[in-house]
Amino acid sequence: MDIKSSLAAQQYAATRPATAPKPDAGGGPGNAFGRAAADFAATLQQGEDVAKAAMTGGADANSLVTALAQTELAVETAVTVRDKVVEAYQEILRMPV
């Protein structure tokens, strides 16, 4: 190995961390969708937990109705977002190239 290729390899290794993506880069759209999906899953899990507790007598009817309403709202929101994404995709497909 000659000196020039050794120096090039060292310089590449030194600049590589600067070009690597940051693991938590902030408020990008992918991060926002990830948080929304995690919140959706947590809402569904909370609704299931309250429903199980209500069946065993550990929760009252009011908390069950509130949890079911939150779950219903989360599912309706997810369906609305999905419909908008499909609509946007279909609109892109209709665009002339």
UniProtKB/TrEMBL annotation:
Write out the annotated subcellular location. Bacterial flagellum basal body
Keywords carried by this UniProt record: Bacterial flagellum, Cell projection, Cilium, Flagellum
A Pfam family matched in the record: FliE
Q: Where does the UniProt entry say this protein principally localizes?
A: other
What the entry lists under InterPro entries is as follows: FliE
Q: Which domain of life is it from?
A: Bacteria
| Spans through the membrane | none
Q: Where is this region: Disordered?
A: 1-33
Keyword Repeat belongs to the record: no
Cellular component GO terms, alphabetical: bacterial-type flagellum basal body
Q: Which NCBIfam families match?
A: PRK00790.1-5
Task: Write down the PANTHER family for this protein, in alphabetical order.
Answer: FLAGELLAR HOOK-BASAL BODY COMPLEX PROTEIN FLIE, PTHR34653
Name the UniProt record assigns to this protein: Flagellar hook-basal body complex protein FliE
